[in-house]
Amino acid sequence: MTDPDKVAKFAGGEVYMWIEQGSSIHLKAASSYGDPTELTADDARKIAVALIELARQLDKLDFSG
Predict the structure, then answer these.
(1) What is the count of structural domains for the chain?
(2) What distance in Å separates the CA atoms of residue 20 and residue 52, rounded to the nearest whole number?
(3) What is the pLDDT of residues 18-41, one digit of tens each?
């Protein structure tokens, strides 16, 4: 189970990302109606930065195992 404190949320809560079981990044993006999430350019940049940070964290976990 994912720790809710480690889930990053963007775009008004329509985009979520987290590291799952120390082995992969999970990304969920959908509106409350199940439609694709619309992102502003600023949202996209923030998500990109967060994904890079999660990738760095995942790399550290891979090297420490």
Answers:
(1) 1
(2) 15
(3) 999 999 999 999 998 999 999 999
CA distances from 43 to 9, 19, 46 (A): 11, 20, 5
Domain housing 21: 4-64
Q: Which of 15, 6, 10, 16 is nearest to 61 (CA)?
A: 6
Q: Which pTM does this prediction carry?
A: 0.83
**Distance, C-alpha 60 to centroid of its chain:** 17
* pLDDT at residue 5, rounded to an integer: 78
| Buried residues in 38-61 as b, exposed as e (16+ CB within 10 A) | ebeeebeebbeebeeebeeebeee
